[in-house]
Amino acid sequence: MTDASHCSAELIERVNVSASLAIFRFSVASRLSFSAGQFATIGIAADGDVIERPYSIVSSPHEPFLEFFVELVPGGILTPKLWELKLGSAILVRRRIVGQLTLDSTVHRHLMMATVTGVAPFVSILRTQQIDRAGGAASNHQLVVIHGASRAADFGPYLSELEELSHAGWLTYIPTISRPWKEPNWKGETGRVEDIVRKHADQLGLDHGNSVAYACGHPQMVANVKDILKRACFLKDQIKEEEYFTLHDSRSHK
Hints:
Blueprint: E1 6-16, E2 21-28, E3 39-46, E4 49-56, E5 66-71, H1 79-83, E6 90-94, E7 109-115, H2 120-134, E8 142-149, H3 158-165, E9 171-177, E10 189-190, H4 193-204, E11 211-217, H5 219-231, E12 239-243
Parallel strand pairs: 7-8, 7-11, 8-9, 9-10, 11-12
Antiparallel strand pairs: 1-2, 1-6, 2-5, 3-4, 3-6
């Protein structure tokens, strides 16, 4: 059911992070052009129609697949159908990939804040940085990622991936859980993203005079960190944002 605006993609790998979180990797029939941090609109044909939703891309443009980190929305229009896919199942991907949550090249310091699956565009940016640097590209970007979840398991394999990347010196990765009383062995940061962002920004010397901020994920987190950053004198164009749903419609955007 492909047309000029879509191409087909095949599910080649799935990792179940929890009952409601999963990572999907698709092989795409036509190589798609995009920038790290953007999102793709994917769809599944049903009853002669195509059900579509946008999802931030986890994979780098340099990688030969499209990767998505998805949260199951009970009663949602698309995610329950994604959960039914088997290896080899086909979906549709819009050829036009868009999004403004890309790395700002006008500054060298970047403060990135995410909740659970909201880390997706930042992983794409970080993988791209890693691949470019490994290929000899010069870069003086310094990135800080504050990644929040209720429990450590919800970080999935990205916890170890980003911790490993942080050893290179150009990334500071700060995972934080909001329910530490349930995980006595957790040694990392605790509290919501908005609870700790000022502390770490101040410690690392990121401010409105030298940095751009990015927020992606739960709309309440996005709203809260925007207020915090505005009080810290960040201007509107120094804060990039992307919400994964609205508080009034949990089925929209993802």
